[in-house]
């Protein structure tokens, strides 16, 4: 072959190799670009997922804090309502207790009330002999109604009149002022069996306590 033909064939081979190399390079470049884009999307999606998870976690924390805060406020409101109710009930009871101090001032009414309280206590005890305790200031008044109280009990219970022994110890007196912290009694009586095992506390203060416990739900 002539040198010119050889050179021409070599140039053709070079062009073919170059073209093939360029095509291969383009394929590699495209593949690399696609792989890069896929990996980039994967990274982006992974980061998005992390962000979503973090957001959901923080959102749950916020919701939990809101629930806790609401629960605390609700409890605080309930406590305020209960405190207001308690204050009102105590105020009512205090007012009623002050009124009790005036009951014994009406001699005739109080005398009748004492007899009714004694008869009621006897009917509850149904004992042949009882101990009676009263305030020292009420002693003469109690003595003056014992016979009529025993007779009334005897008629209602269809039993013999009981023996009533007045205790030498007295119930505490009415307070000199309402805020006193010492024991006090606004009036009434306490009766007990001779052995002291059965006690019927029929003082005005005890009856007020029973009344308030019964009415408290309302």
UniProtKB/TrEMBL annotation:
GO cellular component, one term: proton-transporting two-sector ATPase complex, catalytic domain
InterPro entries recorded: ATPase_E_C, ATPase_V1_Esu
Family: Belongs to the V-ATPase E subunit family.
Coiled coil: 7-61
GO molecular function terms listed in the Swiss-Prot or TrEMBL record: proton-transporting ATPase activity, rotational mechanism
Record bears the keyword Chloroplast: no
Protein name as it appears in the record: V-type ATPase subunit E
Keywords: Coiled coil, Ion transport, Transport
Originating organism: Dillenia turbinata
